[in-house]
Write a structure and sequence with these properties.
223 residues, two-stranded antiparallel sheet
Length: 223
Amino acid sequence: MKYSPDQYIFFDWGWGRINATLVFTWLLMLLLVAGSWLVTRNLSSGEKISRGQNLLEVLVSGMANHIEEITHRKPYVFLPFVGTLFIFILVSNVLSVVPFFMPPTGSLSTTTAFALCVFVAVPVFGLSTRSLLSYLGQYLKPTFFMLPFNILGELTRTFALAVRLYGNIMSGTVIGFVLLIVTPLFFPVIMQALGLLTGAIQAYIFALLAMVYIASALQRKGE
């Protein structure tokens, strides 16, 4: 039994391999690009708007409000990054109920890449609002002796981001396979419903934690 899309090899040239993670990641990106184009090609500012535009506005405004509540800043600086993470993870997890689709988020390499993006984004956004000396100084608080622990905390939370998302998606896949073998008619339907809920929650948690980490690096009032 294969637990990860990394284990499914589509092409092997000896010097390089293309596995299911790469294939379904690119398919998902194409799907998101096509969907974005379809939804935004006929945007309207009038009273009558399409269902797609209405859904898009609800999604964007909801994310923007959450970001503003966390950072107490204008959200549209952070929205492209955090919103992209949320939508990609959400769609990937939701499509896991489609037969033969293997969500890229079920691969540790994918979740690690997302976590590393957050790891890099934290100082990038932090340095946009404060000086380098001020940003690095936070690692010396409350005392100089906390420096190694603060650095370790940055590394461990990045690791936790990757493993949390991967573990939840992988465990759902494994449980679904087991129940499909034991009770092939009833329980898989329930597991798929729970998988949709869990996938949406995990996408929300990942984006929320990413925003919390970024907000913690921003310069606070009075500093």
